[in-house]
């Protein structure tokens, strides 16, 4: 008679063995699948890093074309020799310029099968402050007694494209930490203050900076008879001046002022966002054609929506163009 108990145990062992075998194969297949997925993901990532989406660079290039072109239009209209006295004329000419630029770019890109658009163009109002007489000192308007210490822009939201050319004729002799009556530009938000000093040191036109949290440091110098200082870009005669950081540590709105204006001679200009109360500043004449220093209407910035579409790429963005801004 057969031993049924032994047969039952034997069948159970076989079933468990088969189950273990099947489970092991399933785990092996799962591991292989995971490895394949990981390898595919790594390959795809590497391929994407080497080969960006077709047309993405072209879309960004189009964006840059619009930004550069619009910046050129704004600068041309703001800073042309015979500046605008009528703000509406200025705004109309800037809009017409942007429209013409958009039309030209649309035609160029359409030849390549690309659709482009510029829409929702919004202009931000501002004022241009300017002194064009290189032989005049940095005091306020003669009609107000040529004050030596005066506020150029009061509680300004922002100032950009700030550039001045200073001659060495009237500069005060000074040194870092001992500025005396040296000419200075001061930016203050009512709590914090930033200063730039321009003076003569060892025959050089020298620029130093200071804010309320650090000691004054020399930023740059030149042995030339005159120097062009870009406060917004941080340059002296076109060369980088890293320590010249416009309004470092000061929040907006701020007030821009000159001190010891009789100890510097030259020209300057900058654009301030509407709200700098320039129209009520007795130390600025109303231009154009007025004696320096004067103010005229300006466009501070242009905001617009861009579109770029091809069979492979659809790109949309809102951009703000403010040429010469500190964060350009």
- How much helix is in the residues? 25-40%
Radius of gyration: 33 Å
Number of contiguous helices: 3
What is the ordering of alpha helices and beta strands? Answer: HHHEEEEEEEEEEEEEEE
Low-confidence stretches: 4-10, 35-52
- Give a quick account of the main beta sheet: strands, pairing sense, barrel closure: 9 strands, mixed
Instruction: Label the structural class.
Output: alpha+beta
Terminal residue distance: 99 Å
Strand content: 35-45%
What's a concise summary of this model?
Helices cover 29% and strands 35% of the residues. It has 328 residues and is α+β, with helices and mostly antiparallel strands.
Structure write-up:
The chain has 328 residues and is an alpha+beta fold. It folds into two domains: 1-51; 54-328, no CATH class. Helix content is 29%, strand content 35%. It has three helices and 15 strands. It has helices at 4-50, 56-79, 87-110, and strands at residues 115-131, 150-156, 159-167, 183-188, 193-201, 204-211, 214-222, 226-230, 235-236, 239-240, 254-259, 265-273, 285-286, 294-309, 314-321. Strands 1, 3, 8, 9, 10, 12, 13, 14 and 15 form a nine-stranded mixed β-sheet that branches. A hairpin with a 4-residue loop joins strand 4 and strand 5 (193-201). The radius of gyration is 33 Å and the shape is elongated.
Q: What would the keywords be for this entry?
A:
single chain; 328 residues; alpha+beta; nine-stranded mixed sheet; 15 strands; 35% strand
Record the SSE blueprint.
Elements: H1 4-50, H2 56-79, H3 87-110, E1 115-131, E2 150-156, E3 159-167, E4 183-188, E5 193-201, E6 204-211, E7 214-222, E8 226-230, E9 235-236, E10 239-240, E11 254-259, E12 265-273, E13 285-286, E14 294-309, E15 314-321
Parallel strand pairs: 13-14
Antiparallel strand pairs: 1-12, 1-14, 2-11, 3-8, 3-12, 4-5, 4-11, 5-6, 6-7, 8-9, 9-10, 14-15
């Amino acid at each position: 008679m057969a031993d049924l108990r032994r047969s039952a145990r034997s069948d159970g062992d076989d079933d468990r063995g088969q189950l273990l075998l099947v489970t092991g194969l399933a785990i092996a297949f799962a591991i292989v699948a995971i490895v394949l997925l990981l390898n595919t993901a790594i390959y795809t990532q590497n391929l994407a890093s080497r080969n960006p989406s077709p047309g993405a660079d072209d879309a960004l290039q189009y964006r840059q074309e619009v930004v550069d072109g619009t910046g050129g239009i704004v600068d041309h209209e703001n800073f042309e020799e015979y500046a605008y006295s009528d703000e509406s004329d200025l705004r109309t000419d800037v809009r017409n310029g942007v429209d013409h630029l958009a039309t030209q770019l649309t035609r160029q890109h359409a030849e390549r099968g690309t659709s482009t658009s510029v829409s929702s163009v919004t202009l931000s109002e501002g004022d241009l402050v300017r002194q064009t007489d290189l032989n005049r000192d940095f005091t306020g308007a003669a009609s107000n007694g040529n004050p030596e210490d005066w506020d150029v822009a009061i509680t300004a939201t922002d100032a950009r494209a700030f550039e001045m050319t200073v001659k060495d004729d009237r500069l005060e002799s000074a040194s870092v930490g001992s500025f005396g009556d040296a000419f200075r530009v001061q930016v203050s938000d009512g709590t914090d203050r930033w200063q730039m000093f321009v003076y003569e040191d060892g025959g050089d036109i020298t620029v130093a900076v200071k804010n309320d949290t650090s000691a004054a440091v020399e930023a740059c110098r030149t042995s030339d008879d005159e120097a062009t200082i870009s406060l917004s870009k941080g340059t002296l005669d076109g060369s980088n001046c890293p320590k010249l950081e416009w309004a470092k540590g000061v929040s907006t709105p701020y007030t821009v002022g000159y001190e010891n204006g009789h100890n510097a001679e030259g020209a300057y200009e900058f654009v301030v966002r509407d709200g700098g109360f320039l129209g009520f500043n007795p130390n600025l004449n109303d231009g154009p054609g007025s004696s320096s220093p004067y103010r005229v209407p300006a466009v501070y910035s242009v905001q617009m929506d861009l579109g770029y579409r091809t069979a492979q790429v659809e790109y949309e963005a809102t951009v703000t163009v403010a040429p010469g801004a500190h964060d350009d």
